[in-house]
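Many introductory courses stop at the sequence. We go one step further.
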Amino acid sequence: MEETHASLVGMNIDDASKSFLEELLNTPSPSGFEIEAQRVWAKEMSKYTADVQCDTYGNTWATFTANKPDAPTLMIEAHADEIGFMIRHITSDGFLYVERVGGTDASIARGRRIRFMGNNGDVIGITGNTAIHLRDNEGKEPKIWEVYIDVGASNAEEVAEMGLRIGHVGVYVDGPLTLHKNRLVCRALDNRLSGFVLTEIAKQLSDKKEELAWNIVLVNAVQEEVGCIGARMATHRLKPDAAICIDVTHATDSPGLDKGKYGDIKLGAGPTVIHGTANHPNLVKRLEQLAEANDLPLQHEAAGRSTGTDTDFIYISGNGVASALVSLPLRYMHSPVETADMRDVENTIQLMLQLIQSLKSDESFGHKL
């Protein structure tokens, strides 16, 4: 039977890309347990280059090699992990208590479906939500240790028979769907959507078969949500001369957000480039010039100290790496209904391809006196 991709109806991407994006989004990848999703990503990357590698903790990268032996290297990096839950305690009557994996928001955790990755395969549970008629603490947000999960068991022994134990991880069940034409909704768009950007870049590099002035290494790093761990490992190993980190940023065009506090970022108005300490002015300037020359929309953000992304650790690796952060606007971050605009995805892909094409073998983005 021919697939219809009902959840991504209207998206301006081809059917093969839709199939891959759906598979990637539907594959759990909580921090520290990313390997299944990394295998999905690596399989897709292997269509475009034979040089796909993985390290000890699951950082995975695909390399497109320049013809010049001593060519510099541009690393374009995203992170593969998502927030989730980890089982901390199992009660005698079969309920699970959990802790956060990354920045999980306990205030929206009640009344949800959770998919646990157990020893015998996936186990679906639900977070308990006491009926409003019975609650005497109306308006009180739960602490993470107050969130409990019902997997249908009557006792701890039945939980064990399901293949669950303390330390197993889970994520929200919610899969992808389309709002109107271009808006994509799903858990884990932060930051699986940027991993998708990397595979689309790889597809274009493979199709064009142009001679590259720089080596291009596309990296899907692990454990960003718990401290930007994988990016440190990958940058140390790969030693790039310049780097672009692709992540998501807060769209501030939904009700109740103070633009004086958070900036003015809109869905569908293009990716953002951040100005600040982690972002090298020369590389940022190149991105601005390319966006203007190619009529690509680009929004601007300020980060006077840190970015809160892998960029903060990429740029300080070794003797320093000229780096820039390019971000996809996202509503409702760290929730099961994260919302992005696929036009921003396409414009990010095109901006990265223009950057790659603009590189000269003898140039550097470092400052000169």
